[in-house]
From TrEMBL:
Cellular component per GO, a single term: cytoplasm
Protein name: Glutaredoxin
Organism of provenance: Arsenicitalea aurantiaca
SUPFAM superfamilies for this protein: Thioredoxin-like (SSF52833)
GO molecular function, one term: glutathione disulfide oxidoreductase activity
């Protein structure tokens, strides 16, 4: 199974939706809180300049935000990424 990392903040409704979708899939993920400025800077660099949360990575693939992951789910492309 691919390693899943999700950059979040506690008050972000899209972060909660993304985590809920991943939990429904029965996968484990690492949540990285970006209230810390160093973690936010690392996320922004890794996400090619995107500063909004969530930013979701499955393995080496940058999925993007919740809307991007939900689109993959609708297309049937999320499960193959999750492995």
């Amino acid at each position: 199974m691919a390693k899943i990392e999700i950059y979040t903040t506690p008050s972000c409704p899209y972060c909660h939706a993304a985590k809920s979708l991943l939990e429904q899939k029965g996968v484990t993920f690492e949540e990285i809180d970006v209230r810390d400025s160093e973690m936010r800077a690392a996320m922004t660099q890794r996400a090619h300049g995107r500063r909004t949360v969530p930013q979701i990575f499955i393995g080496e693939t940058h999925v993007g935000g919740y809307d991007d992951m939900a689109a993959l789910e609708r297309e049937g492309a999320l499960d193959p990424l999750l492995g």
